[in-house]
Write a structure and sequence with these properties.
Order of helices and strands: HHHHEHHHHE
Number of strands: 2
Strand order of the largest sheet: 1-2
Radius of gyration: 22 Å
Structural class: mainly alpha
Strand content: 5-15%
Largest sheet: 2 strands, antiparallel
Oligomer: single chain
Amino acid sequence: MNESILDSNEINLSIQQNELINASRSERFLAAVIDSIILAILIIPITYGNLWLGWSIPIEMLYVGTIVSLVYKPLCEGFYSQTVGKKIMKIKVVSFSNENINWGNAILRNILQIAYTSVGLIFSMLLANHLIVRNSYDSISIPYTFFNGSKIVLSIAILIDVASIWFHPSNVMIHDRIGKTKIIKVEEFS
């Protein structure tokens, strides 16, 4: 009888040791803040560095900055299951089955941000092309209205996504559910 109690306790102990703990809201928030600071450090000199020198901003530099922000999270999460902010906060992305995520998960969990950034990039390219070709703002109201409306809808979707963390007991957001992922604590840098 004592043997079965010992076996049962060992099983419970091993289950507790193998259980993964979901990242808290504050850990996720701080990781996002760190990633935003890192992106700003990368993008501002690329995009606006010429202004400090008194030069105009080449439109291509705006595209480079946008593309950096577009690929940062999917690439980091696809390769390492972590962005730099997540690594500093000792959290990482895993699948619902607690395995490292694949590229499909990484892209799907970032689809709202990818869509938002892509719409902005496409609109800015079309607007820049229109201004270069026509050298005026006339007759751009239809594409402007469409893309501006798209960004408003996507902004609302992102706000709903961010707010969704408060309504799920495991701190899972809508984009986590889309990508079938969750954010967990890790004991050491991985």
